[in-house]
Amino acid sequence: MAQFENRKTFAHDDDSVVVIVGSGAGGGTLANELAQQGIDVVVLEAGALHDRPDFHADEWPAFSQLSWLDNRTTSGSWRIARDFPNLPTWICKTVGGTTVHWAGASLRFHPHEFQALTHYGALDDANLLDWPVGYDELAPYYARAEDKMGVTRTNDIAGLPGNNNFKVMHAGAQKLGYACNTGHMAINSQARDGRPGCQQRGFCFQGCRFGAKWSTLYTELPAALVTGHMELRTQAHVAQIEHDTKGRATGVTYFDKDGNLQRQKARLVAVAGNSIETPRLLLNSASAMFPEGLANSSGQVGRNYMRHMTGSVYATFDEPVHMYRGTTMAGIISDEARHDTSRGFVGGYEMETLSLGLPFMAAFLDPGAWGETFTGAMDQYAHMAGMWLVGEDMPRESNRVTLHGELKDQHGLPIPNVHYDDHPNDEAMREHAYRKGSELYAAVGARDVYRVPPYPSTHNLGTCRMSAEAQDGVCNAYGQSHDIPNLFISDGSQFTTSAAENPTLTIVTLAIRQAEHIGKLMKERAV
Amino acid sequence: MFSRPLSRRVFLKASGGALVGTLAFACGPIALLAPSRSWAVTTEQFTTHEGEILLQFTRHVFPHRDLEDAVYALVVKDLDRQADADRNILTLLRDGVMALDRQAGGDWLALEPAQRQASVAESAGSPFFEKIRSSAVVSLYSNPLAFAHFGYQGGEGDMGYLFKGFDDLTWLPDPALPDSGPMPGA
């Protein structure tokens, strides 16, 4: 696969390179944006390379191929801890990270969502804070991200044609007075940027065979490789970030594909391992100088773990639907994404169609269930329509990623424990969302309506949040850690609050802006 | 799993067992896939009797009235593979089957369906029940026969439904442009 060949490799003791941990939305984008500026980059990706011809149109084999399945533990009152105690997330360990799996929804955050504390007020047992960056400042970077990703309904790109699942949602939306369209999707509706248009396979979650859906795997990473300024090392699991006596990052140690410990020196380190692995790496990098872990003078590393308020509503009808045909996220309603406390909660949520194939419908409809209620739903699979509800969840200090006291991974590194308790605001929002989703399907003649609990999280946020003041968070508005100037956070861990929208577009937006800032700092010799 | 005639090997094996049957629905979606109406699934670890109990037990856990035994047999095959790889699983399942027979005073399969259902309900949450439930929720629904039965097209979608029915629903109005985008090339 010539597209993935390194044009240039860098010596392990080359301390002029930028090391990026992870190749997903944050890491992959940052790598390309830096390489385009002529900055030398080494990307260390824990996963192996699986490209479009390798993908499976079969849910369980695809899940085994792409998912991050290293052992993790869970605690807290969330149902995941009971149903999937070792699988808190549904994210990827593969080149391209979770951009291989994501559904493609690319909605900008609302301006008020960057000022959650100002608009929502201080809620009990929530750790709300305003972002140190606002919508207006990000707007031009959002525009660049939308152009890069080919987001439909921006840049004169037509919306995707709607599938059967969309038709059901749209008809219900009309009855309820909601606006509904096929969404802002980073999926080509027509050929663009050397990639074909969507063929409506219905396997968005399993990796897009045609490459119609934007993924760093076949966009940012090959583009970065072509510059000759980026080296991609796969199956490279970073163990620790190292620093000197002045408290500056000097490089990383990592386990290569053969399990041998390697060291890569660096001028600057950017971490984009998703919101479990990123804080885990900082905590696992504790040293005599930083006994609580790197960049953790605030004590906020690993805290404020957010996963979005989620849930699904599936409904069955007298007539067939075949919801699995075509894009997984085929329609979006944003009417409930507003902030309106008359509904009994702060923040809002999006309603987005979602379909699961038969195998995953069995796994996720009601985990642990058996008997006739369960089989009665499965019997109606071909007549089923579905939607996912995704909204803002509250950051809480006690919802956090910590290192397990005893269990170690295959490399001997402490595994992460993920603790989560729903906030009363999350519960009130979920109840409202379940009710509205049910009303929508009832309005078009639903036979049975099923309230489906949250899946393992694909949206993982907030564990190294940005803050104006160093005491409130881990990094500044550019993702630069407050404590270590040449250590950056480059993934969704940076999010100060979760907002209601799917996070990828904002992760890419922040990465583009961060790359510009890093380029400037390097030119000024500030890092 | 479909064969005509059943292979001699099935009957000559010294250990293990075989589940055999005939499709109940000659015109059903599974029959359309199958080369013949007879089916057989062999087991390495379980005897035929054990396999039959595991199959019936699974039917009570996930009762789909019209779903062929041939599909439930794939769960037994899955359990047999797990038992083959892990002695603890073999012991768990074999002891569980023996306990069912013992409680039934001989042959659990000879009980009335309602009595079997009651004994399955009673075992809910036990390691034996959970092993079967958690295996079946995967293997019962992740195979081409189940796909055909439940109306899921599985890997057929690999080349895309763009011109193969992704928007063929006709019992609701078609959303107008621009809520639904144009077909490519339109």
Q: Give the strand line-up of the largest sheet of chain B.
A: 1-2
Main interface: chain pair and counts: A-B, 56 and 43 residues
Biggest sheet details of chain A: 5 strands, parallel
State the helicity of chain B in percent bands.
Answer: 40-55%
Note poorly predicted spans of chain B: 8-12
Fraction of residues in β-strands of chain B:
5-15%
| Assembly state of the chains shown | heterodimer
Q: What's the order of the H and E elements of chain B?
A: HEHEHHHHHH
Name the shape of chain A in a single word: globular
What is the count of helical runs of chain B?
Answer: 8
**Largest sheet descriptor of chain B:** 2 strands, antiparallel
- Quote the average pLDDT of chain A: 98
What labels would you give this structure?
heterodimer; A: 527 residues; alpha/beta; five-stranded parallel β-sheet; five-stranded antiparallel β-sheet; 16 strands; 24% helix; B: 186 residues; mainly alpha; two-stranded antiparallel ribbon; 2 strands
Could you characterize what this model shows?
Chain A is built from 12 helices and 16 strands. Chain A has helices spanning 25-36, 59-66, 80-83, 116-120, 135-149, 164-176, 220-226, 274-284, 358-364, 372-379, 424-442, 504-523, and strands at 18-21, 41-44, 73-75, 230-233, 237-243, 249-255, 261-265, 268-271, 309-316, 332-333, 349-353, 384-391, 400-408, 414-419, 449-452, 487-489. The longest helix of chain A is centred in the last third of the chain and has 20 residues, at 504-523. The relative contact order of chain A is 0.20. Chain B is mostly helical. Chain B has a two-stranded antiparallel sheet with strand order 1-2. The radius of gyration of chain B is 21 Å and the shape is elongated. The chains are: A alpha/beta (527), B mainly alpha (186). Chains A and B meet through helix 6, helix 9 and helix 10 of A and helix 7 and helix 8 of B.
